[in-house]
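ok trying again, last paste got cut off:
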Amino acid sequence: MPVRAQARTKLIDSSLHFDDSRRKAGGVKIALDAMGGDYAPRVTVEGAMLAARQHGIPIVLVGDRPTLEEYLKRFRFSSELIEVVHASEQIPMTEKATASIRSKRDTSMRVALELLKEKKVSAVVSAGHTGAYMATALMVLKRIPGIERPAITGCFPTLKGSCVMVDLGANVDCKVSHLVQFAVMGERYARVVEGKERPSIGLLSNGEESSKGNELIRGADQILKAMDIHYKGFVESKQVFQGQVDVVVCDGFIGNIFLKTVEGLISTTLSLLKRDIQKSFISKAAAGLFFMLFKKFKGCGRCSKT
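nice, full thing came through this time. structure:
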């Protein structure tokens, strides 16, 4: 393994330590960008209330205080588990990320991330503008030493449990070093969050053979083979759901296409099934059982941006 690559790998790995003490002590507090998302703030406030009621999670709602307090009053919710921190601005989904972060200094996203930086919360959740969120996080939290680019990850259900996939859209154009770093971050995420002792890793390609793929992934393949991780080589998209590996690595362009293809397939399949169920009495009778099974399937994995 080249000395430069080996030193970089050690730097990355030593930087990715997760402080689990607050979670084990029950002290996790979540900051929620209450103004982010297509249906905010109504839906975000409802989600915060559900998390507080059902799981006892302390939530900090970040956004326009009068609006958020009005929603809490309307829903007749009063709990010490939810507090409100005021932010006077928000970033619409249609606004350019670069323009937003330069001109707006008091957005709900930024204020929430500042709370994380000051260690007043354990994590930040936002359903808002992805590009703005990533850019603001970089500005406020900075990079982990040894990591050039942050990435978006998500978990997909597989026949063997779940699979972590990274990157799902943050980085359209990548270098070999980026894919290597995504693999290290994905491996650590699978270990810490998914509880997998020694996660296996694969590079998403158009075939399993070492001759397949483009120059980018073949370059990453050579470095990953020399690293002290459970790297299994190339995997095809059909093998993701078979559970061939625990972590799938790709650039954000491919990852985002994969994600939206899966979303479209599920949505279309459900629409076709609902349409055909209406055609006969037997189909209607079986529909209840089917949707119970589908609900169980949905719970097998999470496809969420982090």
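cool. Strands lie at 30-33, 59-63, 82-86, 123-125, 153-158, 161-166, 200-204, 230-235, 247-249. The two ends are 31 Å apart (CA to CA).
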